[in-house]
């Protein structure tokens, strides 16, 4: 039977859809390039912003004072006045802003350099399920590594799209698949599966010595308006990564959803193959799908089937074969 005559079923279509998703993700599209560029830009912007932050923090907490307190802490275990942090509450000293009541107030904001840090300048890390939460930034930055171990770093984007499609307010937060994806992603980012704790590694890279106890708000660090603008660039760069990741995956999901509809109308593998070979598609279908999902009926012929069946066991001898066997057993010459 020719493989092109194999009929499609639900299982085969599902495997083809999964493989087509991989194909769509591998394409060098404008959206994918913008996403990859945003990650490179974010890395350089974060490093540049942190360099400014280091100057500001060390101006407020001189290293010689830090060293003195560290020495005292080692000598007296009752002293706990210095530590490290990656989150800083900055307050501008050379300008004011107007609040909602048109009154002048301090210009201040919380800046977190942590991997899952706040992406809007508010105190805290992230809001569960928010399209701008710090987890989405982590998923985007480590997307390839997470995909390589079978995780889904696109889960929040897919859930948002599904929620919009179904117009169900609570569908995202009650989705058990989404919850499992988030749990698995969190486990990996925290160093599960024997890997690196990405949260801690990121935090250590952007840690500075601070003096004082309590939360960030209890130790507002003075800075200039220009320095403050540099810190805001860091937040904008992280937001851009999440935005570009979302825009790329939206195009991938849209293409895959359209293919799901197309493949439903196909009944034979040959139709999928013709689609894959189209000049605009150029999709090389994973041969493992043929081997694992389609099975032997792709290549086996009737003759092959008959031979493979009849070779099982020992065939009954013919009359001529019986005579020949008797002659050999009784020493009768074959030439006589």
SSE arrangement:
Blueprint (H helix, E strand, L loop, with lengths): L9 H17 L3 H31 L2 H13 L6 E4 L1 E12 L5 E9 L21 H8 L1 H6 L6 H12 L9 H14 L8 H8 L2 E4 L9 E3 L1 H40 L4 H8 L10 H8 L7 H9 L8 H11 L7
Parallel strand pairs: 2-5
Antiparallel strand pairs: 1-4, 2-3
Helix pairs in contact: 1-9, 2-9, 4-9
What's this model, at a glance?
This protein is mainly alpha-helical. The chain contains 13 helices and 5 strands.
Q: Explain this structure to me?
A:
By secondary structure, the protein is mostly helical. It has helices spanning 10-26, 30-60, 63-75, 134-141, 143-148, 155-166, 176-189, 198-205, 225-264, 269-276, 287-294, 302-310, 319-329, and strands at 82-85, 87-98, 104-112, 208-211, 221-223. The strands form 2 sheets. It has a 3-stranded mixed beta sheet with strand order 3-2-5. The chain has a two-stranded antiparallel sheet with strand order 1-4. α2 (30-60) runs antiparallel to α9 (225-264). The chain is elongated and about 115 Å long. 23% of the residues are buried.
